[in-house]
Specification:
homotetramer; alpha/beta
Chain lengths: ~375, ~375, ~375, ~375
């Protein structure tokens, strides 16, 4: 096992949810040590959080800019920085670190506007510094297997894709109660133009793209906001025409009571279908035309090279969300060490996410008219 | 148990699939005896089928018209006739029997054109004779319970409905191989303007209407035909705006390998969600906002009056498709005997099915433009 | 379709549960008409029930003995009689009808004592008249398929069988409240020596024998009665050594809250395993050693001759308990018409059921000591 | 977050499976750093493994004894040692570290004989140094919730417990092929007297004890070895009488094709039942007598304090085996830091595991006779 890489973090201080997830994910496989952070935009909270998390005092920063400058100047500078702030606070730090050649791991969506995303894309190209999106669902072993099956042609010509990401946490007007997550995620200034489509729809879209590997040509989006006073969408029904003959439906909702981060994907081709649910993440249903459907299980019979490469423990012992998230961190470590890591969601995934949001909003403004990619 | 009613049948002879289903359904609860039939449009087959099924010789007919005339003239005339022919052969016999005041049980879709359906509607009104569509899925006990929950307001204000009916039997070009069912169901002359939308989409639409009890205002339909040379749609992705704030998605497919008549319905309102799958027809998932989801089971705790009214045996012993179909026949018997049977799919359901098909085709011809109901 | 056979019934009048099930099952496939009955041991109830069910007055009997005598004397005598009384009232009518050469369909367990069962066995042999037990679970299509797989050697040498039948309806002391079913089923005079083992354990044992087709050599039974004052067992944990190397566990319970007639069977051999649950009766899980498990579905790919022979409708449309029960009636009709019907549970199944109960009780009296078959 | 604790390890070098699991588990929550090890009994492999895992040279040991001596002498000595060797190599290192006051984390079963286990128990008492067994399944959030429900009396008086741990990896004679895991696990010298009962049966027994919290009074065990030449059991059917009226069945198998570490638990009491499967670890079914069953989900509505205390991420995002294992490590860290950690499986769990194995073997030698605890 090679020497650990050094990780910095922007955001993710006390009370933040996703920062903790990132740190667990970074730890699991032992490739990272967390050494520096600008953990909050509130200086006192940034300091308290850094101390609580055991950072050395000289690497606890109160703003991302000084962090980027200081770290870039150190011999033992961080090998990458994770940006786990609300969406509107991705661009600034991403730019600051990329400009200094420090690789970035960033929550999705990449930015709040397509323009900002394009600016970062230019920067990535100029600095030859990668930015990786934590589209962590792409790292589930059975999602990798799904992709491998599609690549191997086991489904034949792809025809139909149905993907959905359903939650219920915004079925009540939490933002009115001052709940922190709800407040920024329903605020267009902090979230960008997309509500559900930005927060979870981009995950679904990315996952569809990852597995099917077909470009989207156009979409027709119907966005809803069921909560009085909520500006951003909390529900979306989207029709997508992908290249060739692939026809898709993407559903995203944050207001369906009883559904807890239910991500479900199914793809049918001329020769077979696959179906995957996050709630039973360790298995992939595979129905070959004219045969009894099979339950392909992580680390079990029929699981292929790509699934096994990101599988840690024997079958039957479930691996979950954190393991998939950890795989992203492990693959980023590999990338930084010089490996080829073609499956990581890179700047293109970031751009695509913003295009998706932008097109959805455009289409919805025109009552569902087709919008081209 | 009152005296059995007399049933006649048009279509459903040798090799026919759905006629056998109707006869089993009619027998199960003991309300019907099958006494007369014009079982095939081919006279020899009509005669052979009638004999094989044990009909008296004088009630084996070779065409529906003579059957309608003869039966209408008998003292022991049939109490109802079931029409189980291909779609294009519904209108003729339906008209002939309605005109003579003989109640009609008819497969869906009611006719191949909206015009014909309207003609029958007029006839129903004039003759005060009912026509009942075999939208049998509406008779599953847990579907009845779903409707009861909606009516009782247990879901709050309805917001989202997702319904799908997925099959795979046309994933191969069976019509090219001369398979009888595939041949007429993919032929616009015999099926009407709808392929998948007519054959299974109407069931899904009807089921959504039955449970949610909201009118559809408009739809945007995307119809596909994945099999080269197939004229009618074999896949459909449809967006539906129902009245009030209810927003829906209806998926129908006949080309997704591994899916066997998978009908799935879920509805979310402001206070809760329900989900039902035909493959586990004896249970309804109910998630009340903020509570652990419950598995409400047929004849079990929590099942209500409407479910129990159409439930035959104790919980845990599955009832299935034929039982639901039989409930339609039993309720038609009740109707004929003078009972109020408000849940039966009547002429309005037939008209609505044709409107649905017609609107889908119109929308699809305009690349998914909204079409109003 | 040949002429309908005539069915009589002993027991099954007003308020009886299982008589209704028998009549539905007899009707479904159209092979039987119900023409005669001694439907209750209470004369008024027998008469009222017969009238209500539409029997001709001269075939409504007030006791099984006069029914047996009268029917035997008629030209249009019944072709078979169904005995659907409580257990202690099986022997008398069974004997009366067998002695007159009228085939008997009988609920399980056959009698309340092994002696009585042996007496009937002698009678069956002497009169060449069959008695068929309604071990209806053996007629589920996927149970037939399971048996076919075992016969074909697809599991290799059988090693392990786990079978269970779990209910909850006696988790409360219903017999104290005067509930009719509970009263006789917990009464050793009416039920015989077995409580749960007689009522549901015999079904489980029969199902294991049917699918595995191995004789039981010995068993070790642990019977419990959790309800104060209840004399008969309401829970049973039983170890069974079958012939060759097959080792089994049979669980039966009537006091596990939330379980509704959950019958589950799994068998493992050297080459594979199968698993079946009544709650998903239309599928059989099949795991071949070293391969991804397959979901074999009724009327679907991989379903074999034996399953298809008793399957009525296309896959995905669930068939249930009544359909399996109806298959027993249809096969009895075949038997009476001269067909070979080797899968029907006959007098040997009846004897075996009593041996099972008797051995369980003996073993339990000796604190679980092994008792040989 | 307090300063990281220092972890040593005995066993777990190259090619070892469970050592890797321990290290991931130790890393996940950030409470441990891995600093020392005697990672193999083969010196070269111990050295290579230590180097590969990034240990400092002076803390790579070639035998546990010198490791115990050296570490005990250091100021920065390890805070705990994990023993991840085959069973026969637990006792030696456990003794060596306990004698020096270094807390031990040990795989189960604790030792190969009850005598050795008792020796360690004495040592634990004398040295006031804890030894914790990695009965990791007890740390699943929904297992914690199950225990909380039992404690809160939500099931009423416990009556029935069914637990099983089913695998298939020994359905082939892997030990004949030289497979390392199979070789030692089927060898009584290295594994002790138990095969399946030691390897997985002890987990099942511990889990039953953990949730139900009832002592076992006696058991009747039927052990089988289906593979020719295999000395130890590879399948077990065990009847257990727990204190009060709780009656149990424990099944363990390593030879049922298609089952992958399937651990399933269900408990029924007078007021309700719970059911849990490792394959859907994030949910617990709860059926209250007379109510529709509920699906209680990790981090969801109805999950209680004990579940939430060991839950990391929002509901719907599955946590798995490694997370549960990590909870054990985190709770050990807490214990060492002075917290009360009453749920950790301590020396008593170790003793009980050996008693369970010993009693099973005794009973099986007497053809399933009852053996008292």
């Amino acid at each position: 096992m090679p020497k650990k890489l050094k990780l910095g973090m922007v955001g993710g201080g006390q009370d933040a949810f996703i920062g903790t997830v990132h740190r667990m994910a970074a730890r699991l496989d032992g490739h990272w040590e967390f050494v520096a952070g600008a953990l909050s935009s509130t200086p006192e909270r940034a300091l308290a959080s850094g101390t609580e998390l055991g950072l050395d005092n000289d690497r606890i920063y109160t703003d991302f800019d000084s962090m980027a400058r200081s770290e870039a100047a150190r011999d033992d500078r961080i090998d990458a920085v994770s940006i786990v702030t609300p969406n509107h606070a991705h661009f600034g730090p991403a730019k600051a670190f990329l400009e200094r050649g420090i690789p970035v791991i960033c929550d999705k969506p990449l930015t709040t506007t397509l323009e900002d995303a394009n600016t970062l894309a230019t920067l990535v190209e100029q600095t030859k510094t990668p930015i990786i999106l934590t589209h962590n669902y792409t790292a589930y072993p059975m999602i990798r297997h799904a992709r491998e099956m599609v690549e191997a042609g086991e489904l034949g010509d792809l025809r139909i894709i149905h993907i959905e990401y359903i939650q219920d946490w915004l079925a009540e007007p939490l933002e009115s109660f001052g709940q922190k997550q709800a407040s920024w995620r329903t605020d267009p200034v902090k979230s960008g133009a997309g509500g559900a489509i930005g927060d979870i729809g981009t995950h679904a879209y990315n996952l569809a793209r990852f597995v099917a590997q077909k470009k989207a040509n156009r979409l027709s989006a119907h966005l809803h906001s069921f909560m009085p006073g909520r500006v951003l969408d909390d529900n979306a029904h989207i029709i997508i025409d992908f290249e060739e003959q692939l026809r898709g439906v993407l559903l995203a909702s944050q207001v369906m009571p009883g559904y807890e981060n239910e991500i479900r994907l199914r793809i049918s081709g001329s020769q077979g279908s696959i179906e995957w649910h996050q709630s039973s993440a360790n298995q992939l249903l595979f129905a070959k035309l004219g045969e009894a459907p099979r339950i392909v299980r992580r680390a079990g019979a029929g699981a292929g090279i790509m699934a096994n490469a990101v599988s840690r423990i024997p079958g039957g012992h479930p691996e979950g969300y954190l393991e998939a998230f950890a795989t992203i961190y492990t693959e980023v470590a590999g990338l930084i060490r010089g490996e080829d890591q073609p499956l990581l969601p890179d700047i293109r995934a970031g751009i695509e996410g913003l295009e998706f949001i932008s097109n959805c909003v455009d289409s919805a403004h025109q009552d569902g008219a087709w919008v081209k990619f």
